[in-house]
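[agent] plan:
  1. take the single chain provided in the ticket
  2. run structure prediction with default settings
  3. attach C-alpha cells to the ticket
  4. add a short note for the reviewer (M.T.)
[agent] executing step 1
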Amino acid sequence: MPLTRRAALGASAAALATRRASAQADQVIRIGVLTDLAGPYRDVTGPTSVACVRQAVEEFSAQNPGIRVEVIAADHQNKPDIGINTVRQWLDQRGVDVVTDVGNSAIALGINPVCVEKDKVHLNASAGTSDLTGRACTPNTIHWSYDTWCLSNTSGTALTKAGGDTWYFITADYAFGHAIERDTTRFVEAAGGKMLGASRYPFPQTTDFSAFLLQAQASRAKVLGLAMAGDDLINCVKQAQEFGLGRSGMKYAAIIGSITGVIAAGLETMQGMYIAETFWWDQDERTRGFTRRVQTKLPAGVFPNYVHAGNYAGITHYLKAVKELGVARAKASGREVVAQMKRMPTDDDCFGRGVIREDGRKIHPSFLLQVKKPGESRYAGDVYVLAGTVPSEQAFRPLSEGGCPLVKA
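[agent] step 2 finished; step 3 output follows
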C-alpha cells in the first residue's frame, strides 16, 4: 500500500515527538544510591543514606524547579561482583549520572574504573579506604565524610598520648578492616605506642567473637581497637562486656563507630567507648536543623551519622555544580562536574564550609567522642561527650603523602 502524504507527515510528527521525549528524558539528572539495604551495614548506611540523598534533592528542587532529579537505590549485598555489575547496568541502561554512598571499600575500588570509563561521577560517602584519594584516585571520584586515615589519626594519636600506649586489634578480614588496622598502627607507633597483635575474622560471616576477644584479653593491651562497623561492632562490644574486658581496665576504641551503633546497642553497653566521627548531629544549630528535617523521613529514634550526612552534603554540592554547568554539560561529562565541584567552596548544614582538594578529598574537622553513661544522657540522641577536635588541615592525610597521580609535585 503506497504511503500517503498525510501518513508520511503523521509518521514524521510521531518520530519528532519521540525524539523530543527522548531528549527531555536525557535532561533528567539521575542519582544512584548503591548501599547495604539488608546486611551488616544497613543501619550505618542503607535506608538512612537514601533518605539523606532524597532530602538533598528535595531542598535543591524546591529552589530549582526547572532541573529534574531522580533517585534510585540498590543493594550491593557487600559483594563486589554485584556492586560492579549494578553500576555498569545503571550507567549503560538507566542513565545514572552519579553513584553515591557505596559503603564497601572493595566495591568502591571496583567501581572506580567503571565510572572513569563511562565518565560518570563516583561520589563516595561511606567507604573507608583512604586509597580512594591515594593510589586509586581518579578525576571522576570525590571522597566525602571520612576515611581510615582520618579516623585512625583521630583515635590512635589521642588515645595513645592519653596513656593507652598498647593496642590489640580485632579486624574485619577485607580491604576496609585492613586499612583501619594499618593506618591506626601507624599513628599509635608515631605517638610512642605499641601494637601487641591482631585477630582477623571472616567478614561478613562472623557473629561469635569470643575466640578473638580471649586473644585480645590475653595480650593485656590497654586499648582494644575495633576495625569493623555496623552489626559486627555492636555484637563484638556486647560480647566484650560479657567477658569483662572493660572491667579489667581495657579501653574500647571503635575506629569506625557511629551514633547509629551506640543507640542500637544502648548506653549501658557502649558507655566509655571512644569513637571518632566527622559529623555530630548535636554540634550546632545547623547540624540540629538538618537532623530535624531529615528525621521526618526516618523511623522514630533514628539519628543520622557522618556517613548519612556525607550523602546529604555531597549530593547538595553535586547539584550546585550541575546548576552551574547546566544539565546537558553535567550529563555529558562526570569529570567536568567533579572539576567544577573542586572549584566551588562547599557549604552545607552538616559540615559547614570547606573545600575539595585536587585528589578528590573533601576536608573538614574530625571529633573524638566518648559515649556517655546512661545517667548522663538528657534527651534522645544525647550520647556523646566531646573529647577532642582535630582541625580540618590536620584531620586528613597530607596531599604529598597520598600518592594520587592527580596531585602535581
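[agent] step 4 note for reviewer: The longest strand covers residues 194-201.
[agent] ticket updated
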